[in-house]
Design goal:
The complex is a heterodimer of chains A (341) and B (339). In chain A, 35% of the residues lie in helices and 23% in strands. Chain A is of the alpha/beta class and 341 residues long. Chain A folds into 2 domains: 260 residues, P-loop containing nucleotide triphosphate hydrolases (Rossmann fold, 3-Layer(aba) Sandwich), CATH 3.40.50; 68 residues. The longest helix of chain B has 36 residues. Chain B has 2 domains: 97 residues, no CATH class; 229 residues, MetI-like (MetI-like fold). In chain B, 72% of the residues lie in helices and 2% in strands. Classes of the chains: A alpha/beta (341), B mainly alpha (339). The structure holds adenosine-5'-triphosphate, iron/sulfur cluster and magnesium ion (MG). Adenosine-5'-triphosphate binds next to strand 1, strand 2 and helix 1 of chain A.
Chain lengths: 341, 339
Amino acid sequence: MSFLELKDLRIHFPTDDGLVKSVDGLSFTLERGKTLGIVGESGSGKSVTSLGILGLHKGGRARISGEIWLDGEELVGASQEHVRALRGKKMAMIFQDPLSAMHPFYTVGDQIIEAYRIHNDVSKKVARKHAIDMLGRVGIPQPERRVDSYPHEFSGGMRQRAMIAMALSCDPELLIADEPTTALDVTVQAQILDLMRDLQRDFNAALIIITHDLGVVAELSDDILVMYGGKCVEYGTSDDIFERPEHPYTWGLLGSMPRLDREPTERLMPIKGSPPSLINVPSGCAFHPRCVFEERTGGRAKAEVPELLETEGGHLVRCHLPRERRRAIWENEIKPNLEAS
Amino acid sequence: MVTYIIRRLIWAVVMLTIVSIITFAIFFLVPRLAGATSESLAARYVGRTASAEQVKIAADKLGFNDPLIVQYGRFAKGIVAGADYDYGPGVERCPAPCFGYSFLTRLPVWPDLLDRLPVTLSLAIGAAVIWVLAGVATGVLSALRRGSLFDRAAMGVALAGVSLPIFFTGIVSLVIFSYGHPFRITAPGGSFTPFEENPAMWAYNLILPWITLAFLYAAGYARLTRAGMLETMSEDYIRTARAKGLNERRVVVKHGLRGALTPILTIFGLDLGLLLGGAVLTESTYSLPGMGKYAIDAITNQDLPKVMGVTLVAAFFVVFANLIVDLLYAVVDPRVRLG
Ligand SMILES: Nc1ncnc2c1ncn2[C@@H]1O[C@H](COP(=O)(O)OP(=O)(O)OP(=O)(O)O)[C@@H](O)[C@H]1O
Ligand code: SF4
Ligand SMILES: [Mg+2]
């Protein structure tokens, strides 16, 4: 069995307006030492998925079904207390905006010490030494001095490094980074991604990187999962997604990738329209109102939910277009366009 | 930090000086406007039997004919260094801090105030402990169980607490605690036992006033805490705390409540400062011989030196509490830069 395995995970929120199906039948596997990138637009259910794996929806109003297997243990059915004990130790998380994700009233050191001491029965002094070590490892200069600083005294990049130090303090085997670089400058983004790659190698953890920007996961990920409206629409190796993508939504994401050689605002083929409502999900293929190739499926896209099917060697696609049509469109219509720009 | 403290201290002294000037001006002008003359003021000291001549001499000696500024100078000097009062028959030494002599009892005001202080202090601090604990706990639970029966009941009671007058809640708590059941508290009104004499009696005599006063304040603190907790518990750092694997109690107390503490602390400082000048209504309701009662009696008897003394002491507590709050701000919220 894989180290992490999600089977048909569903996380629904009953609200006054209706049932929000934030995650609707998500499955994937991930091994130790490997990196999975989860990509999708805002509201596609990426954060809800990651919080769900950590068990942070438990006890709330969310309706959760399916299975989450972590190192041979099932977590959806496990008790809150049991999952709490795994949190921070076996699985840890890095959040998007480190300024708001760290407590403004405690020093960076105290917050790392706290994380460490929940799961390790050590004295404050030992924990402090460990915190300083961790700050050093994530590349914070003068860690023995910075350990006593407050989050607001750090720069954005340094704060994110401190956040990473906190998440790694108990040597977790699964690390989830939810948009770890979105709040940072472009140059700092690259540094943080480099750091995460190095650390992952050192710690041999399973890493999930969540982002709405394919560019972020391009170099880091072994596998990539493209999410749309709470569902996986395409899943494959990094090569599958970048060299042989088959889903129209993935094509759209590739087309709207910011490039270093262009103005950030100028994008080749932005996806028209906006992400779907998760309460009234469009009938059939959830992407059909925005899909350029919708009419080529002869009305099926509106009526019938496409299944996530294997196209070749573990590469999964959720689209009614026949495999050959998709490949032809990619080779003849999409790829030349992307390369021309 | 040190310069900040020094600046705040200087500012506190300036505030107190200004308050004392204003107080003095008011109490100097008010009797005059009401038709009092230097002689009629002096007459209050030398007694009714004195001759007109004696009164005139006393008025001169007491300085009632000097300009306002000179009289204020003497008054201020008395507070800092003490003063000698010479009203004819003899000279009376009034040691620092001298707030003058009562018209009525001819006793210096300060020892009187010192007598009353423990009562007010006991009342205010005891009530403060109760209301902070009860108010904050209620607010936290309400926020965590938002919309529940507990939340709605607590907020209903809290609304009553902040809007009902104290003599009403005072009578209600008297009825609840003192009549018709075996656990009643039948503290005789108007008695105060100093803590060092008998702590049990001290608490027993004060429990009703404490509850009455605390209820009034707890209501406000419950609402304030609830609002603050609703805000902080949805902050990102709470999610982080949970993601670390903290248990829920520590998430709520160490991260949530800690984040909501600043406004509570601010209000607490101001409330306590005001209250230390005398819980007028509570002291009157329960006939407690505290500063508030003292002020009321002094006003009723038109005993101006007493009124001035109690006003200045009350002002001192407010300024002092403000000072403490300002300093604590920096401790509570490290983002507040001191310089
Ligand atoms: N507690 C909740 N109650 C109701 N709806 C929720 C809740 N949490 C999330 N949602 C909804 O679930 C959907 C998916 O949210 P999620 O935060 O996972 O998106 P995301 O993919 O992380 O987007 P972003 O890129 O903006 O972070 C959103 O429409 C959101 O409104
Ligand atoms: S099923 Fe149809 S609408 Fe959906 S992605 Fe494929 S082509 Fe587009
Ligand atoms: Mg998100």
